[in-house]
């Protein structure tokens, strides 16, 4: 298809302004789009290298930016389509396009001529945005090995290409391995009525429960049948095994070789350098502090879970992973008077979705206009145009329900990086929430799923609001990687606020607003399990760090899993489970899973301002938008936080929250 464009916009360049992202309807369209954009990028590259005379912003930075923009117009959209399109041939074509585009970008990073051209633009006289553009590009060039001899550059290029291929294979194996158990209709006793209604028996009289989150989480939370919870848990933990055993070993080896060729001791050290933490030692120290603070709470929480399980099984002394959700909700309902089934009755899917959108509009001063009959990759996808006053600044897509061969988690996929006068910010929120429901069978969410929706919507707003920059490397999710979870985690805080919840949390049968007293009980119950949740995050963080901190030629994937789980996880390792094969963040985040905890610590600091001034205080929310979200990657995260907080960031609020 031809990417829709509108007449040229004066200002940064004479290229037409892009009006909408590519949404391809055939494999041929995918291939043609990548051909078109990558050819345009290569043409710009040749012209830039052929330039003569003094290097300037206009003859070097601007065309280099244009080159990156051409790639941005297909690469992120291709990544999305490879994960969500229902047609296998289109997914495959998009995956091939993503590999081509990433190879092109890596070739740029290893091109000494481009490096020299960028270096030759003098820093004197540059405005702040151009200085940032120059600094980050030159830093990334040095980190890519551009200053090495030709043979080393070729070796690094080959390693990168193989890493991309292995990462795509890892994700594909996980996405396409959807497992299930079969139970009798009577085995659904104890499950919420809407869940039972959504799982009728098949022609053989059996009910199929899949490893999709919409099936998996409620079943492990409510089913009193430990044997069935255990069976489903094992199916979940065996996804993509054994296929991803070899893929992950290869990926770890490629990463380690690449890092050591560049002079780093391991991949974790390489990845930490351009983050807020700077070194892997800081990561390890931070995780140890979190462990030290949270472990007493974890042990206290575990004792309560074991005591409750003893009521059902008097001889027990251990909580398994498949017990975690079930006995946590038992303690909350029986001891803390919060029944998850009572809570979920207030969270009908469509009302939650509309409520989250309205909340974001109110906080950030924007308006969402739903697009009628949008061109999308599936009929169930919705699209909204985003206006700041009268200015169209972006669009977002919502693809929120499970289907075969679709990305199986919840995440945002950016489709276009917003640029001043060039192209809008475009992003898709992909989820696997239950529904859509019907008047006689509403789709109800767990409160945790509401928090997840808010979390991803925080990412979405960050991307949409950070697109006002000239340079593509300053827009969108271009802040330090260990900061980018902060805006999403902050958005979760509104999921605990009675006033915010009151706007959309209404009992589905009667429309009754969620009582403030129930919200208070939910907040009190949330304190139970905090130690378990934080230590589980420490465990996953240590697992990702450990895999990337040692020589993979000597790494026993299962042995590391068992060792790290024994030391840090609240729950024991279960034989014949292979978390590393289906832990998708090992591809996406590699050694950087700690960022969730690090960003949580930053978020708690930012939240102190909202706590002091009110969660719905528009002046505070707009200041947060202006000082933290809109900068994107144009300034360091520490500087953004200092501007908003009026001081340097601190982890004091995080430690107080953990110890409370």
Main attributes of the structure:
7% strand; alpha+beta; 4 domains; 28 helices; two-stranded antiparallel ribbon; 57% helix; 9 strands; Neurolysin, domain 3; disordered N terminus; Glutathione S-transferase Yfyf (Class Pi), Chain A, domain 2
Concise structural overview:
The chain has 28 helices and nine strands. By secondary structure, it is of the alpha+beta class.
Structure overview:
The chain has helices at 27-50, 57-72, 75-84, 88-109, 112-119, 128-144, 150-176, 193-197, 213-222, 226-237, 243-261, 267-272, 280-312, 321-334, 340-344, 349-364, 447-465, 485-492, 498-502, 516-527, 530-547, 557-568, 579-582, 585-588, 595-613, 618-629, 637-645, 652-659; strands spanning 5-8, 16-18, 180-183, 207-210, 367-370, 382-388, 391-399, 411-416, 425-430. With 660 residues, the chain is an alpha+beta fold. It has 4 domains: 5-109 and 111-144, Endopeptidase. Chain P, domain 1 (Glutathione S-transferase Yfyf (Class Pi), Chain A, domain 2, Up-down Bundle); 180-237, no CATH class; 252-344 and 530-595, Neurolysin, domain 3 (Orthogonal Bundle), CATH 1.10.1370; 349-529 and 596-659, Neurolysin, domain 3, CATH 1.10.1370.40. The strands form 3 sheets. Strands 5-6-7-9-8 form a 5-stranded mixed sheet. A hairpin with a 2-residue loop joins strand 6 (382-388) and strand 7. The longest helix is centred in the middle third of the chain and has 33 residues, at 280-312. It is globular and about 80 Å long. The relative contact order is 0.11. Mean pLDDT is 94; it is low at 1-16.
